[in-house]
Amino acid sequence: MGGRRAFVHTGGVALDREATLVVLIHGAGGDHSVWRYQSRWLASSGRAAAAVDLPAHGRSDGPALPDIGGMADWVCGLIGSLGSPASVVIGHSMGSLVALETARRMPLAGFAMLSPSIRMAVHPDLQAAADRGERLAADLIIGWSHTGRARFGPHHDPGVWKQGGNRRLLEENAATLGSDLRACAGWEAPDLSTLTTPALAILGSRDRMTPERSGRDLAARLPAVTLAVIPGASHVVFYEHPSVVNAVLGPWIDGLEAP
Amino acid sequence: MVRPETDHFDTLAIHAGSEPDPTTGARTTPIYHSASFVFESAAHAAALFNLEVPGHIYSRISNPTVGVFEQRVAALEGGVAAVATASGQAALHVAIATLMGQGGHVVASSAVYGGTVNLLVNTLPRFGVTATFVDPRDHTAIAAAITEDTRLVLAETIGNPVMSVLDIPAVAGIAHEADLPLLVDNTFASPYLCRPIEWGADLVYHSATKFLGGHGIVIGGVVVDGGTFDWEESGRFPTLTEPYAGYHGIDFVDEFGPAAFAARARTEGLRDFGAAMSPDTAFHLIQGSETLPVRMERHVANAIRVAEFLADHAAVAWVAYPGLERHPDHALAGRLMPRGPGSILAFGIVGGRRAGARFIESVEVFSHLANVGDVRSLVIHPASTTHQQMTAAQLAAAGVGEDLVRVSVGLEDPDDLIADLDRALRAAAP
Lengths: 259, 430
Fold this sequence. Notes:
The structure holds 2 protein chains of 2 kinds. Helix content of chain A is 42%, strand content 14%. Chain A is α/β, with parallel strands linked by helices. Chain A has a 7-stranded mixed beta sheet with strand order 1-3-2-4-5-6-7, sandwiched between helices. In chain A, α1 links the parallel β2 (21-25) and β3. In chain A, α2 packs across α3 (94-105) and α4 (124-131) packs antiparallel against α8 (174-186). Chain A is globular. The two termini of chain A are 24 Å apart. In chain B, α4 (88-99) crosses α12 (260-273). Chain B is of the alpha/beta class. The mean pLDDT of chain B is 94. Chain B is built from 18 helices and 12 strands. The longest helix of chain B is centred in the last third of the chain and has 20 residues, at 292-311. Chain B has a 7-stranded mixed beta sheet with strand order 1-7-6-5-4-2-3, sandwiched between helices. Helices cover 40% and strands 13% of the residues of chain B. At the A-B interface, α1, α5, α6, α7 and α11 of A face α3, β1 and α11 of B.
């Protein structure tokens, strides 16, 4: 895109350009692999999955995009280049804001927000640690993200210690984490009263990064929203409760119509 | 300054990977004695076999009890995933087979377990995988031994049986300079004393039979994926970066991200080679892992007492224990293992082979057997047991002399251990 490499994981199968395109957007300091339990499942069930590495994350070229609006513009460009009869954008945490802003910029069949918040304030110590590339940044994010069952597991993938995987992603994307967090903190919820694109908000009742009430506040501003609160779930709801999340996502996607 | 809420090692040793049983409420992890697991539907079965959704299919590939042990060790080692195996040797084999095929080459420390030497020298060459052994302290030699075909650098945190300490950051740097991963056998240190991934290693394996279990009642192994190595960037590992026909063309790095190695090690290594850990074994190892921190502290404290006693004994020619200031790796051990360099040591008995045999036969608290890392104190004469299959040249390269006695210091009262050693040394005096 624009002469720069953009990496998209299509769930292990070639992108079906006749199928509904489902774009998956990771959170701060992440990459496409956070959607491990969604991308391959979506691609194997008749959808065209596209789990992206945002610029400067994973295998996509930089530079990092400094604000949520810029990331949404990039996603719009990606959707345009991939081509699809209908597109759905799903984001987690920071990515949920990108999904929302994408919906404000272009017609979508729908957008889903996992662990969203009406405001994503960043603790100044976290921001400072991320800017300095300190281990503390990952420690804080992991501690606040892995609550409830996600704290000790067992995680669903046999042998996989999700906190460790999350730490590696944050380390690999350390150069952009500070920028991502600043983008989160700098986003202000706009007037959403005219955004009629069907929305889905999936919240965890034990989420300490983006608490349920903050997600509810954002959802309350959306005219066409479906709200799903997963009891006991933490911030990393999509890999803490993958079957529950997918059971919500699947029928919701199937019920969408092309814009 | 806000404090992170990540859990400390001692907490992870008890809780990581486990939860109260969701069906019965059992607080300790049950032994899930089931070969297979029921599919919710035909679609669910298809999704499991296509690796779309996580879950258990058949206990050769994964099992809930084994999974708790795997996640716990991954957490304790600071890794992203772990794969438990039937033994430490199986863990090493799975690691090598995951990374390379015919034509592959390993650069290995000469101070490794005799069984590792045998695998690399006598067995794997029949399958087209060869190895070059180098002194782990000779970093120039390590770099020089790397060829175009090398796919792995292999060493032990504490080299068996001469207790050489691996300079993990330096050796990892050499491996990474050549776009290769470093695999470390961390059996002798345990993650409580050293976490090789934090020092630059990419993969870690254990004979879990030793300190991880601590009780010496089961055979088991585990390999941990640090998630640190960039397989894609290296370009030398098609098993992880190219479509695999065994799972519908899956690309493990694309699909599993930092846990790509562990995913292939499980879905191919356990599925096809079949050296899986049993749930009984995992249950016993889980019990052991819960007390790892307190056991290791006592192991180290006892080992220091024993090493100091031996160092001053007239019937002892030399003592190799990195906790002693005179050990050449003492400073390095202090840096990499500030809590202590384990509880395995070696010493040379005055009087050579004959005195060694008399000593072994005279101990009463120590047990003469081929194992380490037990709550019981153990003793062995490597030249006639663990290293008996090595040639004279390989023995010399590994620093194993005929007088060498290896001791694994257990958790008994150190005064009783010292008294037992003293009496046996006197009995063995020429």
